[in-house]
């Protein structure tokens, strides 16, 4: 069976205030063309269809057109909700839409109920695991522990139990939206971690033939059977080195996997350039970036006059301007920035406790309080966005 794995469309998202709706429409055109050109039998969309819980009307219209066009190809489509989506809103009308071959899996209670798609070698069972927020689904799964690994493990137990009751030789595909250990993140994914507790091991998905992941925006293979499709477009300059693709996966009669990447259209390349303003304006090696979307980091010791106006004379599509003056090792601002670099919110909070208590850091119960407070803030923010 030939499967096209994609995720993280983020319909409605802009890039530094530049609308990406046209680029997203071009990607969806490419998606439909790929389905037809490669005789795809199933499209799987691993979450974050929209960029926010209440998407703009133009994004909803784009999604609606995509569903109609996929249905017209005759391909079966399975998609799940991600942490950016409102599961309830995305799942409205799922029962009716299913009649057209588009299966929306947004209810955690349905994790163990697959979409069955036959080919000449038997059935392939597609299980949709929407984004599972531990504090909201723990009761549904009767999870003994709090955390992403616990609820995902419980959901996968349902998948394996259902699969065990099916005919021998039934192959399986799981869609999930999660941060799996070994994955390389970028700056554009909304954080679902608190001190790293949301990272789950790839082994939680053992027992199935292919795992189609969403959430991380870089296309990557955690293992041969566990892969991220990545986002079809770049949504931050941290993705400037990404090759944006989908996975075209051939699932063999005994669960063998052969996968290749299908490139997505690039509306405009990204470039990160760094140096003093005069150097950036004069360096001939930067000519290749003159038509790119540019993030410029200026290292001038003193902020130059009208830097954006001067930059856009050479790089008209400059979207982001960052000031990072080169500082000596004895500069207190430089040392403070280095101390914070790469540290999580949990670590920064613990460092603050140690600072105000004369070096005495938090004990384990206090760490748990800090962890809980950070988790509550993150969940409350996500809930308010979903109710907006």
Comma- or semicolon-separated keywords:
single chain; 388 residues; alpha/beta; Purple Acid Phosphatase, chain A, domain 2; 3 domains; 6-stranded mixed sheet; 11 helices; 19 strands; 32% helix; globular
Description:
It is a single chain. By secondary structure, the chain is of the alpha/beta class. The protein folds into three domains: about 1-265, Purple Acid Phosphatase, chain A, domain 2; about 270-325; about 330-385, no CATH class. About 30% of the residues lie in helices and about 25% in strands. A six-stranded mixed sheet has the order 6-5-4-1-15-16. Strands 7-8-9-12-14-13 form a six-stranded mixed sheet, covered by helices on one side. Strand 17, helix 7 and strand 18 (about 295-300) form a beta-alpha-beta unit. Helix 1 (about 20-35) packs parallel to helix 2 (about 55-75), helix 5 runs parallel beside helix 6 and helix 10 crosses helix 11. The longest helix has 24 residues, at about 365-385. It starts with a strand and ends with a helix. About 35% of the residues are buried. The mean pLDDT is about 90. It comes from Streptomyces hebeiensis.
């Amino acid at each position: 069976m030939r499967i096209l794995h994609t995720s993280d469309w983020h319909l409605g998202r802009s890039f530094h205030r530049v609308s990406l709706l046209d680029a997203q429409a071009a990607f969806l055109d490419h998606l439909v063309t790929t389905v037809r050109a490669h005789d795809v039998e199933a499209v799987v969309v691993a979450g974050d269809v929209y960029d926010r819980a209440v998407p703009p009307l133009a994004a909803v219209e784009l999604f609606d057109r995509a569903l109609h066009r996929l249905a017209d190809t005759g391909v079966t489509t399975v998609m799940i909700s991600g942490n950016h989506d409102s599961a309830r809103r995305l799942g409205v009308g799922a029962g009716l839409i299913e009649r057209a071959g588009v299966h929306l899996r947004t209810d955690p209670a349905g994790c163990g109920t697959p979409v069955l798609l036959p080919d000449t070698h038997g059935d392939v069972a597609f299980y949709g695991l929407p984004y599972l927020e531990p504090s909201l689904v723990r009761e549904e799964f009767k999870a003994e522990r709090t955390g992403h690994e616990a609820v995902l493990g419980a959901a996968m137990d349902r998948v394996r139990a259902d699969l065990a009751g099916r005919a021998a030789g039934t192959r399986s595909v799981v869609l999930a939206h999660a941060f799996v250990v070994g994955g390389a993140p970028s700056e554009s994914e909304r954080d679902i971690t608190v001190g790293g507790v949301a990272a789950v091991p790839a082994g939680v998905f053992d027992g199935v033939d292919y795992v189609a992941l969403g959430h991380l925006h870089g296309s990557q293979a955690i293992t041969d059977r566990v892969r991220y499709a990545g986002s079809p477009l770049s949504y931050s300059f941290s993705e400037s080195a990404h090759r944006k693709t989908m996975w075209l996966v051939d699932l063999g009669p005994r669960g063998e996997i052969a996968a290749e990447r299908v490139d997505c259209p690039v509306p405009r390349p990204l470039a990160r350039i760094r140096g003093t303003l005069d150097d950036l304006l004069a360096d001939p090696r930067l000519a290749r970036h003159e038509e790119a979307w540019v993030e410029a980091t200026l290292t001038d010791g003193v902020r130059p006059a009208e830097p954006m106006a001067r930059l856009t004379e050479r790089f008209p599509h400059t979207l982001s301007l960052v000031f990072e003056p080169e500082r000596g090792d004895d500069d207190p601002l430089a040392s403070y920035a280095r101390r914070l670099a790469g540290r999580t919110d949990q670590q920064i909070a613990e460092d603050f406790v140690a600072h105000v208590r004369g070096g005495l850091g938090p004990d384990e119960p206090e760490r748990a309080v800090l962890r809980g407070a950070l988790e509550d803030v993150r969940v409350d923010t996500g809930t308010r966005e979903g109710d907006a």
